[in-house]
Write a structure and sequence with these properties.
Layout: E1 10-13, H1 19-29, H2 37-46, E2 56-63, E3 66-75, E4 86-93, H3 102-117, E5 121-127, H4 131-139, E6 143-144, E7 154-158, H5 164-168, E8 175-179, H6 187-202, H7 215-227, E9 231-237, E10 246-254, E11 260-268, H8 277-291, E12 296-300, H9 306-315, E13 318-320, E14 323-329, H10 332-335
Helix pairs in contact: 8-9
Length: 336
Amino acid sequence: MSSPERRRPLIRAAVDSDLDAIVRIHNRARPLLADTVAALRARRAAGVALRDDVPWIRLVAELGDEIVATGRAIEASGGPVPEPGVVYAGIEVEPGMAGRGIGHVLFEQVRVWASALGADRLRCLVDLDDVRSVAVTRRWGFTPSEAEDPMRWNYVLDVSQAERARLVAMRLPDVEVVPLATRFDDEAFCRAVHEVHDEGRSDIPSTEPFPATVYEDWRAGELRRAGDAGVCLVACRSGDESDKAVLGATAAEPVAFVPAAFVDWTVVRRSERRRGVGRMLKAALALWAAERGIDRLDTEVTADNPAMIAVNASVGYRPARGLELFEAPLHPDATS
């Protein structure tokens, strides 16, 4: 008799009530693409539907009454850059259930669905630091895509391994760090933080400069972040009540269902750079995370921002290889 742990899973179409389980598995299996609490709220409002203008499919795999894996696919002929013949796919398995062939069962269902649409290629994003996922993806016939976008530069801080004393030592004697949420009723203070935010964002190297934000919209976003148990930490010059007292700020969004958070942005006033404010903010954010049981902080930095790369390294962030686009022909015999 076969072990119940090895029995074939039930594959079925996902329904809206599956959404929390889908996101939970997705976040555990793919930390670089994890959904924040805010993203989960938006997904709950939209349901399991992926788009309303192109074909899509979303599946779950069940063992007993428990969802243990999920798969999705969407045809890519819509959108601003149509890709006829391409289907983007994603398969995620609960980490504790990996190695049992459940992902392959889902993949075969997605492959059959894409073939029925007349597609000729499958594409998926792969976390290059996840050696097992890379190996499985290659075994399924995928190779790096020639249409690959530039790799994102990801950095990860293992908060549980960070030395608290070392982080505390990064504080500056004349600077204090306060949560923005404690000063939401101080209009002048909030506007000063917004000013530094927009100034700093405009200086971040990018192919498309960050646009200025409307103060009311920015403040509403920070109120929402605080309500989601995220944080915006503000570095201020101690004892200074002027509009230049705000030296910098950083913000993080909690990830749904797992002890992790994404560092959304970190900025320092131009006149205060290169004196340790950015490093102090990053260290303060790590201490904030540790106090809340958050084990991992993720952030993205482009290769042409060496100052922030150096700040991350000084705090203890390690580079992650990031995501790469892989592609597989749906009909391999036709290309041989």
